């Protein structure tokens, strides 16, 4: 939960809505908040059916799956471990002057590594996160069917993104540094990459509406000209508020004249909602004129310079 929250803050740090929330606190091995009311967790203006909510659901779902998967691979959890490879990608590498080819080795070779157990992580996250929507709770008795379906869909998008972005890592084995044998396994990449991909999908999120086809409830694009929603699309039900009342004091970026046509993310015009901005000078200290001294240390001088910092009025 904490990792997902921090990633949310990072991805939206230059947006009016910056995932500002009551940060989860670990108490007696249980994540708790100052309130149990979901909308107020991210501020009173937060729209549970809005586009920001689609990211929140996806990032928290993927965050739980990611954490459980990594814990399994590190043998930090009972009842799960890394996923053993079956007939996979141990390869013998033959190198010539111009080409490198890989040949699968015989079954007599054994794996020395194993995959991240992402399937266990996905299964756990599905049960844990989706239970909020599937189990009746007095605090959520007024949640609509459309809201539940939206949340479940976005939860799944976040989880499946992990599975889609498994990376193959290989370690070379051989005499005198040669790579005569490769031992490979599939690993999860950095969580920052997952957060970035989800933010990009948020920018292309589809507004949907609940429709009835025979006895089935289906979320369809509000724009009838759009194709049906897929398992990789983030979806939302309602337009979000402007969030302009939360930007006072927020840092913003001043667009340079050279890039006047391209508005930067976090630009003062956008961030401050036209209310203007203040500029202050601050002194920044950095290491400079560094030298390597044999052997073995690096010495640097301290350099000071003035930096302009802009913030919304």
Automatic annotation (TrEMBL):
Q: Where in the cell is it found?
A: Secreted, Extracellular space, Extracellular matrix
Listed under GO biological process in this entry are:
canonical Wnt signaling pathway; cell fate commitment; neuron differentiation
Q: Which UniProt keywords apply?
A: Developmental protein, Disulfide bond, Extracellular matrix, Glycoprotein, Lipoprotein, Secreted, Wnt signaling pathway
- Note the superkingdom of the native organism: Eukaryota
Chief localization: secreted
Xref: CDD domains = Wnt
Q: Does the keyword Metal-binding apply?
A: no
UniProt xrefs under SMART domains? WNT1
Q: Which GO terms describe its molecular function?
A: cytokine activity; frizzled binding
- One Pfam short name: wnt
A GO CC term assigned to this protein in UniProt = extracellular space
Q: What does this protein do?
A: Ligand for members of the frizzled family of seven transmembrane receptors.
The record's similarity note reads: Belongs to the Wnt family.
Name by which UniProt lists this protein = Protein Wnt
Origin organism of this chain? Clytia hemisphaerica
């Amino acid at each position: 939960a904490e990792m997902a929250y921090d990633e949310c803050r990072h991805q939206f740090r230059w947006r009016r809505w910056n995932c500002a929330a009551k940060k989860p606190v670990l108490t007696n091995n249980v994540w708790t908040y100052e309130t149990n009311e979901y909308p107020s967790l991210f501020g009173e203006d937060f729209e549970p059916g809005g586009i920001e909510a689609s990211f929140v659901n996806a990032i928290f779902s993927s965050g739980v799956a990611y954490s459980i998967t990594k814990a399994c691979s590190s043998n930090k959890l009972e009842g799960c471990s890394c996923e053993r490879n079956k007939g996979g990608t141990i390869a013998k590498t033959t190198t010539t002057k111009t080409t490198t080819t890989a040949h699968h080795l015989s079954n007599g070779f054994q794996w020395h590594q194993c995959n991240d157990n992402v399937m266990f992580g996905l299964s756990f996250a599905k049960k844990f996160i989706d239970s909020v929507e599937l189990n009746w709770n007095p605090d959520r008795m007024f949640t609509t069917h459309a809201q539940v379906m939206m949340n479940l869909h976005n939860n799944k998008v976040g989880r499946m993104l992990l599975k889609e972005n498994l990376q193959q890592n290989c370690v070379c084995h051989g005499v005198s540094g040669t790579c005569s044998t490769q031992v490979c396994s599939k690993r999860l990449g950095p969580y920052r990459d997952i957060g970035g991909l989800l933010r990009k999908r948020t920018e292309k999120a589809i507004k949907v509406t609940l429709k009835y086809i025979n006895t089935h409830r289906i979320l369809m694009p509000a724009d009838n000209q759009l194709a049906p929603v897929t398992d990789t699309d983030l979806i939302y039900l309602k337009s979000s508020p402007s969030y302009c009342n939360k930007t006072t004091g927020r840092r913003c970026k001043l667009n340079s004249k050279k890039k006047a046509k391209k508005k930067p993310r976090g630009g003062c015009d956008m961030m401050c909602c036209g209310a203007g901005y203040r500029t202050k000078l601050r002194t920044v200290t950095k290491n400079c004129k560094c030298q390597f001294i044999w052997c073995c240390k690096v010495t640097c001088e301290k350099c000071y310079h003035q930096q302009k910092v802009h913030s919304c009025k």
